[in-house]
Amino acid sequence: MLNNYKKEELVARYDALMGVDGAKKEASRLEWESLRMNGPEVWNVHIEGNKEIEMEVGFEEFSLQVKQYTGIDVNELSTFQYFALKNNLKKAKSGNN
Questions:
Q1: Torsion angle of the four alpha carbons 80, 81, 82, 85, in this order, in degrees rounded to the nearest 10
Q2: ∠ CA(23), CA(25), CA(28), 5° rounding?
Q3: Stretch 54-77: mean pLDDT, rounded?
Q4: Residues 13, 30: contact at Cβ < 8 Å?
Q5: What distance in Å separates the CA atoms of residue 85 and residue 91, rounded to the nearest whole number?
Q6: What's the pTM?
Q7: What whole-number distance in Å separates Cα of residue 79 and Cα of residue 73?
Q8: CA 51 to chain centre
């Protein structure tokens, strides 16, 4: 998948060549093309190793760990607080306080 920096770079290049509308269409086409590289079996919920289940279960497992170790409900955190807490827990787990 294209990261935001790469996408912005592509938009700027195509903007110079094709104008704003052409650049946006081309960036969307390239993003769509990159998404198609991950076959549908990766997202099929009935196949073992599926990414959607992996991401959702991973988030729920993390949420349970946060609740267990800190008493904090992750649904009440802002996005910044969530990622700060996640990074803090990773550091604590690895011993790099």
A1: 120
A2: 105
A3: 85
A4: no
A5: 10
A6: 0.43
A7: 13
A8: 11
